[in-house]
Design a protein that fits this description.
The chain has 538 residues and is α+β, with helices and mostly antiparallel strands. The chain folds into 4 domains: 83 residues, Multidrug-efflux Transporter Regulator, Chain: A, Domain 2, CATH 1.10.1660.10; 120 residues, no CATH class; 89 residues, no CATH class; 189 residues, hpI Integrase, Chain A, CATH 1.10.443. Helices cover 43% and strands 9% of the residues. It is built from 20 helices and 12 strands. Helix 7 packs across helix 10, helix 11 runs antiparallel to helix 12 and helix 16 crosses helix 18. It is elongated.
């Protein structure tokens, strides 16, 4: 393991060589391990490991105390070993450390002959060949511990695919798929993963690229790199699991599309490919906002690969897009909301859904926020509900931590209609959730959507008809209640800034749209205008 090693400028010349006065071949001064460490700037502990691996054989043991000595060509051996891509050890005991004794660890090293004045590429090839040979011997071994140049990895299979688990390191580096069922290829991919993670954590410098050709990144590798980047801690810009799932869904569609057009590398992706992908999404009837998100995500991935110097700057895609400024989400009318609540109250199996509708109408909460609402969020004395974003708190490490979309904690007063519902609910649930599904189960957003559409909207659509090609009550969904809340507040004269605070927005095109619609000053001024003349009007 080459940890703690800093690069050396060039092989050091042997200034300590002693020359025979008669012109004979110079004799070279032997080095102690301490002198070798000083001359090569490599820690003694690393030299001991290389000695055990056979990379630095002991030339002579002499003097009192059985001191180890090395010939000066050990400096060149150190330089060559340092420039090799990786040195790996396959541990036969899962809980052993990288520094265990030879009796419990099989070290995959390099023979004496292969080390002698070879180029780094040749040395790396020798490492790979011996690693392959050793892999064949231990092919049936499960859960091996593989010690890389920078991290220790637990190698295991999930189904038929190899995975590497690096969570046991002092800096946990997660679990990663090696994307292959072939063990030799898995070890090779693990070597690359070990270096890549070390670069991301600032432990190692990025490897130099071949200036004769541009670096290339396969589609699968680029997606994995970008998703790993997105998983970084929130404090440095990492995203939530929900956002990560959205990104994965984008790549699940985009990558097969690109492969179908004979594109296998991100280097090959161009503006014309994204335009073709947008046309395909259009043909599949995706909404404008969805298309905007998908194309933006693909551009972000390419920009990340360029910023991390995995792609050349020439791969940057210039594709201006107009950000969506409006929405076609249907906004319920008061009579429609009243009819839905009354319909649910008449059916005992839908009482819980009536409570959900009242809560959404009186708060403007997203369904995921309502599903996660806890009794500890409700202050009955102050008549206030407070939603706390927990992505930056200690609770974030728990599985039930709450993440709010824009990561802003917010509070709002409890409306009397909502207070009536809250007072009627049972607070004895073990998980502390406020609103529960039928039979007291956990409120699942997808299930709520299904019940709303199939049991309520479909039942009332004839009462509130609209043309087939028009957006109407039949198109209403759970998010429509958030629009309803916004429209009622705007129409009732609630200050715009106060409403945005209740909703948790710094700015909101949705809020601005409803305030433009219900602006009393605009309505008043319109009534004062005379377009057709008094005589014509009469």
């Amino acid at each position: 393991m080459l940890d703690g090693c800093s690069p050396i400028a060039a092989p050091m010349d042997l200034a300590d060589s002693a020359t025979d006065p008669n012109g004979a071949q110079p004799s070279q001064k032997l080095l102690t391990i301490g002198e070798l460490s000083t001359r090569s700037s490599i820690p003694v502990s690393t030299l001991y490991r290389w000695k055990r691996a056979g990379i630095l054989p002991v030339i002579q043991i002499a003097g009192p105390g059985s001191k180890m000595m090395f010939e000066p060509d050990a400096l060149e051996r150190c330089s060559a070993a340092r420039q090799s891509s990786h040195v790996f050890a396959i541990n036969r005991k899962d809980n052993s450390s990288p520094d265990v004794d030879d009796s419990s660890t099989h070290v995959v090293g390099i023979s004496d002959d292969s080390l002698e004045l070879q180029e780094p590429q040749t040395l790396a090839a020798a490492h790979h060949q011996q690693l392959t040979n050793e892999s064949e011997v231990h092919q049936t071994k499960k859960n091996e511990v593989v010690v890389g140049q920078y991290y220790k990895w637990k190698l295991f299979k999930r189904g038929s695919v190899f995975w590497a688990d690096g969570r046991s390191n002092s800096t946990p580096v997660g679990r990663h798929t090696l994307r292959t069922s072939d063990r030799t290829e898995a070890i090779e991919n693990l070597k690359q993963l070990d270096l890549r993670i070390a670069v991301q954590h600032g432990v190692a410098e990025p490897p130099p690229t071949d200036h004769g050709r541009s670096p290339s990144v396969t589609l699968a590798e680029g997606v994995e790199l970008y998703l790993e980047h997105c998983r970084r801690p929130a404090v440095v810009g990492g995203i939530t699991e929900k956002s990560l799932s959205r990104y994965k869904a984008v790549f699940d569609k985009a990558v097969p599309f690109l492969v179908g057009r004979n594109v296998t590398l991100w280097n090959q992706v161009s503006k014309s490919h994204l335009e073709a992908y947008a046309a395909w999404l259009d043909g599949e009837s995706y909404a404008y906002a969805t298309e905007f998100l998908e194309l933006t995500t693909l551009k972000q991935l390419v920009n990340y690969l360029i910023d991390s110097e995995r792609l050349p700057p020439t791969c940057k895609i210039k594709l201006p897009m107009a950000k969506p400024t409006d929405t076609d989400t249907y906004c319920y009318r008061p009579e429609e909301v009243s009819a839905m609540i009354a319909f649910c109250r008449m059916d005992p199996s839908l009482h819980w859904l009536a409570d959900v509708i009242v809560a959404l109408c009186c708060t403007g909460l997203r369904i995921s926020e309502l599903a996660g609402l806890r009794w500890t969020d409700v202050d009955f004395d102050a008549n206030v509900i407070t939603l706390i974003d927990e992505t930056r708190s200690r609770r974030a490490k728990r599985t039930n931590s709450r993440s709010i979309k824009n990561r802003r904690t917010r509070s709002f007063p409890i409306h009397p209609d909502l207070r009536t519902v809250l007072d009627s609910l049972d607070r004895r649930g073990t998980d502390g959730r406020v609103v529960r599904a039928m039979k007291g189960g956990v409120l699942r957003p997808d299930n709520v959507r299904h019940f709303l559409v199939t049991r309520v909207i479909d039942s009332l659509r004839e009462q509130f008809p609209s043309a087939d090609d028009e957006i109407g009550f039949k198109n209403g969904r759970l998010h429509s209640f958030r629009h309803y809340f916004c429209s009622r507040c705007a129409n009732s004269g609630i200050p715009e800034q106060l409403l945005m605070r209740w909703l948790g927005h710094r700015s909101s095109l949705m809020v601005q749209r409803y305030y433009h619609v219900f602006d009393k000053e605009s309505q008043s001024q319109m009534q004062e205008l005379d377009f057709i003349g008094e005589s014509d009007a009469s």
